[in-house]
Amino acid sequence: MTGTQVSPPRSARPDRAPARRRWTRDDVENRVFAVLRVVVIVGLLIVTLFPFYYTALLSVRPLDRVLQDPGALWVGPAEWDLGSYSRVLAPSASGGQGFLVFMGNSALVALGTVALTLLIALPGAYAVSRLQFFGRRQVSVLFLAVYLFPSILLAVPLFVFFTRIGLRGSLVGLLIVYVSQIVAVSIYMLRNYFDTVPVSLEEAAAIDGCSRLGIMRRISLPLAMPAIVANALFVFMIAWNEFLFALLFLIEDRDRWTVSLGLSQLAGSIEIPTTVLMAGSVIVTIPIIVIFFASERLLTEGLTAGAEKG
Q: Does residue 148 register a pLDDT over 90?
């Protein structure tokens, strides 16, 4: 019919614009926290990595270039000069700073402290966690009470005592002092981790005829390995960087100095160039970084996950 409008089929009609999605409070919070997470991570990386980067950069630059442009944040490999590292590592008889000897002394003391501390702390922490005895609850408080006394308060009595017994000036005496200072907190830290190991696993091993020592060696220690590695790294860092007792016990004999004493000598001398000081700082820091990344898997891996079912 003429004049009659025929409506187009339904399928031919233009689709309506989809309704705009309204932002909810949860959407806003998720987006804000996503941005803040990136900002915080980048900020922390800059704060933690930039000082070490600038220290390493100064250590490989010639002293005259540092004096001309100390604020340079990048130099090409063609301008690098490793002479500062040679001077730091060379023996003192050859005009160097003798840091190879210092690092060897620090390694002996630090590794010995780790070994003796774990040898004492592991059975002690296991006993506090698993065995019932009088005063068990108060033991942890006593362990932490050791750290209520500052190191400087114990320095003079320990200095006099070790002088009387003839151990002042020796690495053995310094090792004993470090172990006595650290073992209490190591027991406390390991005891908290042993508490998380399922008791039912040890009970099952005991039913199978395993002794208490066998249970500890075959069940508890493997499951507590992340805590043991973390504790060992913690002890190593303390022993490697400790300065006060090393100064009191070893200052008279340069051949027995640790890296902390050697670095303090570089920092306190106006005759030592800045580049040499920075090279010494890098050398002291590198072992800690290497050990940390080498043990990162055990530090972050939860070996007890899935150990007990049902």
A: no
